[in-house]
Amino acid sequence: MAFIEDFVEFFETDEFAVEATFAGETVNGIFEESFIEVHGVEGLHPVFTCVQADVSGATHGDAVTIGSVTYHVHGIQKDGTGLVALVLEDQS
Questions:
Q1: Torsion sign, CA atoms 13, 51, 22, 33
Q2: pLDDT, tens digit only, all 92 positions of the chain
Q3: Domains of the chain, earliest start first
Q4: Model pTM score
């Protein structure tokens, strides 16, 4: 019998998770926006980690709205456990 992880507790919005809109659906996940500097250029690196099945159709360029900010998917990093980190690009 295969083990199936239940990620619901990891993505409760009364803890660390936030709601995002992807393809017209609400998806819960962890949003991080860390500072980066590459060759003297400073910026932010937004990443939204969620259940892979919730965004299974995600492709580069898709829109993800978190709060009032719309991002486009710049990278899709599946971790092999059923989670995915969507590397985002701010479109504002």
A1: positive
A2: 556 677 888 899 988 899 999 999 999 999 999 998 989 999 889 999 999 999 999 999 999 999 999 999 999 999 988 999 999 999 77
A3: 17-90 (2.40.10)
A4: 0.88
